[in-house]
Records
---
Amino acid sequence: MTHRTHHLSRFALVALLASTAAGAHVTLPPGGATAGSDYDAAFRVGHACKDAQATTGITVQLPDGFRLSEAQARKGWTLASNPREVAWKAESPAAALTADQKAEFIVRGRLTTTPGPLYFKVLQTCDKGSADWAELPVSGVGEKQAFPAARLDVLAPGIAPVDVRDAWVRQTVPGQSGTGAFMKLSAPSGARLVGASTPAAGVAEVHEMKMDGDTMRMRGVQGGLLLPPRQTVELKPSGYHLMLMDLKQPMAKGATVPMTLRFEDAKGVKSTLELKLPVGAPEGAPSGGGHVH
Ligand SMILES: [Cu+2]
């Protein structure tokens, strides 16, 4: 797991843990959003209620700290909203979501200027029964609730609203001057990865691998690497990667490398993320081909 080391690390880490188990819940994409910004809250529904065949309704309660501006209509579903609540209902069984059909229900609003977690309670109604995703954490860390409310981490300006997973740095042998760093990035509101730095290397650049005739070559990504909203972009051997050059010491398996990632949003607002990356390929990671300079 990638550890964020900024001052909000505890709740960022909790968010990572919570979202690991999120496959079976109604959730917001991890990564958070910037305090005071306009945010598209996309509630992900991945399955029907227990023992049910279809999801027929979704009702989201809007917390203080989220001021509704617009709810996105869904074809075949009615939409009703007021400042406290947004409700979608399938107009017919045919429009309902089947048991394992994935869908997003989106509301746009303005976020509070106060950083901290926001919780959205979501009532999922089904052809049979319902699921009330409305539990709030009691003690904070390490809790696992059966029906957690959807959580949004509202981040102080300057902290990138980007989720980082499965990050690692390739180990090196003595004398090797460069290596790569890899991870999965997703930005709920979209962003560009425009740069990186680490005390472990003189230079850190965002690279891509491209075929040049028969040879795989890499080059810097001009203008930064685009992270479309709510999509995961993978930095991996033989694809996009962070190139670390002018290494200060060999990268030994088991070591940890601090790294700062720099991002920009569509409006040019800059933010950063402080990470600690483990050295060594995780279990099951593609080892990939060699780097050609
Ligand atoms: Cu490279």
---
Amino acid sequence: MKKHLIMFALAIGLSLALTACGGSGASTNLSVDMTEFMFNPTDYSVPAGQQITLQLSNTGSVEHEFVIMKHGTEVGNDFGDEDEANIYWEAELQPGESNTYTFTAPSEPGEYQVICGIPGHYLAGMVAKLIVVAE
Ligand SMILES: [Cu+2]
């Protein structure tokens, strides 16, 4: 009897773990490091429409931004005023700053460009990718 209970508990635990992963590699918890001039990691997979918790750290020596562009939009030569209207969500961090944010993942599956909006940083290679997967 006791053995059955243990097996049952293990089965529950396993199913919870599988549910949390969604089976697609998508996660509602992201952790991203920013420095000159890169994001680490550079690919994030999240479930559509879910609340996402994002742990951001700026370990560089200048200000950095985490800017998610709207679906179907990409920054041109460098991030400029014309791109402001295409921002889906953004956060900015001073050097040495760490913060936890929450935002709602876009409801439309697909790839979303992530960039740093500080002048010159996009050009220097601060680009990443948010991949929104259907639930
Ligand atoms: Cu930057």
